[in-house]
């Protein structure tokens, strides 16, 4: 098996034991529909959606931490409302500099930072974490709802560059995705391409959905790279609407392939993940369908 494919699949499974440790916590929260057992991009309680990310190394978090934390709220069908941060720094001057970059992310996305924590403990490396609070626009969108015959699209531009460029690219993707929801486009499943890259995140969607895919277009040559784009699984009839809305918003969109019943991953005629491997992952993956 290709090294990058193997790395993506291993990443997908590496936190299984952690999730199993908290498996019964979901039962303790009234109104929770997406929690530990779903392992989705964020959690959902009632009509509210929450996501926490980090700790990021300070250099990364100050450029993209809030952006990425908001991204997981949006991809589950939510509108980010406000956020908290928590940072470990060496001194107050460093905290002030970091806050200027975080403020750029906050102002650019319209997601105010309303609290958090700043500490200067000895022997800890500088880092930062974020929590974003959002509200579901219509209904939560799972990463586990792929249907046979769906087209899989990649939406958005790779989130990279300086803070301003990252905010602009993420903002365009957020606006486009929320407009899809508001205009009633049917989205069966969606996921943020984060750690594990587009291939690993796509395989997690397939495992949870118990489906396979025939890939006809490779959106990015490195399968395991963090991208910050969205994978969207939609009925074939919805692709035209998505392209129209994305084009209007100047948001890149690429059709990657089609969902099939047979649980395997094909790229062209080549089998990249066999039916046997997919069935093994389905059996070993801790997952329960979200509550309706």
Tell me what you see in this structure.
It is a single chain. With 292 residues, the chain is an alpha+beta fold. It is built from 8 helices and 13 strands. Strands 8-10-7-11-9-12-13 form a 7-stranded mixed β-sheet, sandwiched between helices. Strands 1-2-3-6-4-5 form a 6-stranded mixed β-sheet. A hairpin with an 8-residue loop joins strand 1 (32-34) and strand 2. Helix 3 packs parallel to helix 4 (92-109) and helix 4 (92-109) runs parallel beside helix 5 (163-182). The mean pLDDT is 95.
In short:
The chain is an alpha+beta fold and 292 residues long.
Shape assignment: globular
Question: Helical amount among residues, as a percent range?
Answer: 25-40%
- How can the largest sheet be summarized? 7 strands, mixed
The count of domains is: 2
The total count of helices amounts to 8
- Name given to the CATH homologous superfamily of the largest domain: PurM-like C-terminal domain
Any idea of the CATH topology of the largest domain?
Phosphoribosyl-aminoimidazole Synthetase, Chain A, domain 2
SSE sequence, one letter per element? HHEEEHEHEEEHEHEEHEEEH
What's the alpha carbon Rg, rounded to whole Å? 19 Å
Poorly predicted regions: none
Tell me how many strands there are.
Answer: 13
| Strand order, largest beta sheet | 8-10-7-11-9-12-13
What structural class results from the helix and strand content? alpha+beta
- DSSP strand (E) fraction? 25-35%
């Amino acid at each position: 098996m290709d090294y990058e494919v193997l790395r993506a699949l291993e990443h997908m499974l590496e936190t299984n034991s952690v999730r199993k440790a908290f498996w019964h916590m979901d039962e303790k929260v009234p109104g929770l529909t997406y929690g530990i057992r779903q392992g989705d991009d964020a959690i959902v309680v009632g009509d509210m959606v929450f996501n926490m990310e980090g700790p990021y190394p300070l250099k990364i978090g100050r450029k993209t931490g809030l952006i990425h934390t908001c991204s997981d709220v949006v991809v589950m069908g939510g509108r980010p409302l406000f956020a908290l941060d928590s940072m470990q720094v060496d001194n107050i001057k460093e905290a002030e500099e970091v806050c200027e970059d975080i403020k750029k992310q906050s102002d650019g996305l319209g997601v105010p930072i309303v609290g958090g924590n700043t500490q200067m403990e000895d022997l800890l490396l500088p880092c930062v974490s974020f929590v974003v609070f959002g509200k579901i626009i219509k209904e939560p969108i799972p990463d586990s709802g792929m249907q046979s015959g769906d087209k899989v699209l990649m939406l958005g531009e790779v989130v990279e560059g300086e803070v301003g460029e990252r905010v602009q690219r993420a903002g365009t993707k957020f606006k486009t995705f929320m407009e899809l929801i508001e205009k009633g486009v049917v989205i069966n499943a969606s996921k943020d391409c984060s750690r594990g890259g587009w291939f690993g995140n796509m395989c997690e969607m397939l495992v949870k959905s118990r489906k396979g895919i025939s890939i006809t277009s490779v959106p990015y040559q490195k399968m395991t790279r963090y991208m910050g784009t969205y994978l969207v699984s939609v009925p074939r009839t919805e692709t035209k609407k998505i392209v129209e809305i994305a084009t209007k918003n100047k948001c890149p969109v690429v059709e990657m392939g089609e969902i099939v019943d047979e649980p395997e991953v094909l790229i062209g005629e080549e089998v990249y993940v066999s039916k046997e491997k997919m069935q093994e992952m389905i059996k070993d993956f801790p997952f329960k369908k979200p509550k309706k």
